[in-house]
Design goal:
Serine Threonine Protein Phosphatase 5, Tetratricopeptide repeat, five-stranded parallel β-sheet, Rossmann fold, alpha/beta, DNA Cyclobutane Dipyrimidine Photolyase, subunit A, domain 3, 470 residues
Length: 470
């Protein structure tokens, strides 16, 4: 009989027991010690320092994971400190044969893991996505930099199926009583997003499994900001409370007339894969535009405009509704994210990095790869094959994706009494109509801080100047 070997399961972005490749690998040795390290370097990083909601969601997720572990005879060991030092001490104290962890792709994660690997035996498995970014490259080994060829290559490889999913263990080995754990710091998850694997599983099942599931209507409803047409799984995918592979299997398992919605949702999951790959292969995107010809856009220094955008008082109801939703809940519909990002970078001509940083501060699902990729895409400076001249008209976007104004009226009560489509442009009301609706522009609700048509011309000129200097 093979000797029993204890391994440390180092949890990072995989707060789950089901379909956890790192946990499964750790269990092959026999004994396993689940460990989460509260890393001071991450807590101090700019993109995490003020992210109170995301930290609270994580801490609540750790408590939920600890409860699941205890129900199976184990427990979570929490320590604070530099991971290399903490894990080296834990290996020495437990005589663990190795540390097993899910691979990550960010520049900091890779530096951190290299430092840990110099101190202890470290085995990396899986990835935050469905496949590791190094597994989907061109025949010559170079990475894809445009989504459509990436998607085609991704789908040409063997697709995951239910047989690939790893079941959660019914029982786990006990953690030695002498191995002390720090208490998990206090922190309540946002009310809209109860933390933990159980809630993540409930959401995935409700959205993508069963007859007439919402995923079947996803293609038609995903862009409607006034409807609950999305899965709202992004915070759970961000911290691995459900595996991306499990989500993909749910999409791939739909058949018949449901395929169109499932295919579109799978493509959204593949955008997440693509941006993980871009960050893995091109870590400089966290500092600069992917497109070298658009690294010198003459952005405006306009703190007043930036503040108005952040606070939801731009005078454009769809923009203000989205920014107020973000402030209140820590989340925003993806279509709304594109609208507000276009408004900041094109209408206000403010550097996309200010918007990226604000989202990382406010979002429960803030993820460096997806957030950066989304901002660069909308700003027109990233990997997208379509050039910079994509500029969303906020009024037309609102009319199309919030046709009855329900979303705007919910988050911008100042315009709630404006009837019809003019709710999206209250400045078009006559003065007496504004007064009757309780929405006097410039008094009850801000006047638009910029004229969209003039701003569009200004943005196009600025981008052309940048290209001319490239």
């Amino acid at each position: 009989m093979a000797a029993r070997v204890t391994r440390i399961w180092w949890i990072r972005r995989d707060l789950r027991l089901a379909d956890n490749q790192a946990l499964a690998a750790a269990l092959r040795g026999g004994g396993v010690i689940p460990v989460f390290v509260l890393d001071p370097a991450l807590a101090a990083a700019r993109q995490h320092r003020d992210a109170g909601r995301r930290r609270s969601f994580l801490l609540a997720g750790l408590r939920a994971l600890d409860a699941e572990l205890r129900a199976r005879g184990s427990r979570l060991v929490v320590r604070t400190g530099p991971p290399a030092e903490v894990l080296a001490a834990l290996v020495a104290a437990s005589r663990a044969g190795a540390v097993v962890a899910e691979a990550d792709v960010s520049p900091y994660a890779r530096r951190r893991d290299a430092a840990v690997g110099r101190r202890v035996a470290l085995e990396m498995v899986g990835a935050p996505g469905i496949r590791h970014p190094a597994d989907v490259v061109k025949d010559d080994g170079t990475p894809y930099t445009v989504f459509t060829p990436f998607r085609k290559a991704w789908l040409a490889r063997p697709l995951p199926s239910r047989r690939d999913l790893v079941a959660a263990p019914d029982r786990l080995p006990a953690v030695p009583a002498a191995l002390a754990s720090e208490p998990i710091p206090a922190g309540e998850a946002p009310s809209a997003f109860p933390a933990g694997e159980t809630e993540a599983r409930r959401r995935l099942d409700a959205f993508a499994r069963g007859r007439s599931a919402p995923i079947d209507r996803y293609a038609a409803e995903r862009d409607r900001v006034d409807r609950d047409g999305t899965s709202a799984l992004s915070p759970y995918l961000r911290f691995g409370m459900v595996s991306a592979r499990d989500a993909a299997v749910a999409a791939l398992g739909r058949d018949g007339g449901a395929r169109s919605g499932a295919d579109v949702w799978l493509s959204e999951l593949l955008w997440r894969e693509f941006y993980l790959a871009i960050l893995f292969h091109f870590p400089s995107v966290l500092r600069e535009a992917f497109n070298p010809g658009l690294r010198d856009v003459p952005w405006r220094r306009a703190p007043g405009d930036l503040g108005a955008w952040q606070e939801g008082r731009t005078g454009y109801p769809i923009v203000d509704a989205a920014m107020r939703q973000l402030a209140a809940t820590g989340w925003m519909h993806n279509r709304a994210r594109m609208i507000v990002a276009s408004f900041l970078t094109k209408d206000l001509l403010v550097d996309w990095r200010h918007g990226e940083a604000w989202f990382m501060r406010m979002l429960v699902d803030g993820d460096p790869a997806a957030n950066n990729g989304g901002w660069q895409w909308t700003a027109g400076v990233g990997t997208d094959a379509a050039p910079y001249f994509r500029i969303f008209n906020p009024v037309l976007q609102a009319r199309k994706f919030d046709p009855d104004g329900a979303y705007v009226r919910r988050w911008v009560p100042e315009v709630a009494r404006v009837r019809g489509s003019l709710v999206h442009e209250p400045w078009a009301l006559a003065p007496l109509e504004q007064q009757a609706a309780g929405c006097r522009v410039g008094r009850d609700y801000p006047a638009p801080i910029v004229d969209h048509h003039a701003a569009r011309d200004r943005a196009l000129a600025a981008y052309r100047r940048s290209q001319g200097r490239a």
